[in-house]
Amino acid sequence: MNLLEALHTHRLLAIVRGPDPEAALAAVLVLAESGIALIEVSLTGADALGTIRRARAALGPGFGLGAGTVLTAEDARAAADAGAAFLVTPALAPSLGEAARRAAIPGSAAGPLPTHPVRAGRRRRRGRRPGVPAARRRRGRGRLPAARRRGPRRRPR
Fold it and tell me: C-alpha angle 20/25/29, rounded to 5°?
């Protein structure tokens, strides 16, 4: 599938996400029956990979069904294994491009590319604090300078 050509031809990509996997599957099937040719199932929804698997089985191998909010190479591999024909990521990461190439499925970056905040969130989950140099973290002085720690300024009366 050539994602860029499909987007130029159909000019619409539906996004399905939600807390109920059955409702998400029903939404994908209704959208497909209504003539929507490109549907993205966001990986932020509950059992999104299962929804992609079941939708792929129902719609067949030629349908434009993809995975969205792909953040890691593991997400990309799992989505490809589930039957996604394309990947959409909100941020650029070298590992995602490599994983998409290995799986032989196209990927696209969507939105304003908040790459820096996404990477900062990953660093925070690994126990590192973004924005604080490593030398200051090691010495235990990762706090803001005293001038910036003060509370709100009081207005003179």
Answer: 150
Task: Kindly state whether residue 144 falls inside one of the protein's structural domains.
Answer: no
pTM of the model: 0.65
Name the percent of the chain lying above pLDDT 70: 62
Indicate the burial class of 33 (C-beta count within 10 angstroms; 0-12, 13-18, 19 or more). exposed
* pLDDT for 22: 96
The candidate with the shortest Cα–Cα distance to 105, out of 76, 69, 72, 75, is: 76
Q: How far apart are CA 2 and CA 64, in angstroms?
A: 10
Tokens of 119: 């990477």
Residue 93 lies in a domain: yes
The Cα–Cα gap between 25 and 107 comes to 22
CATH of the domain at 82: 3.20.20.70
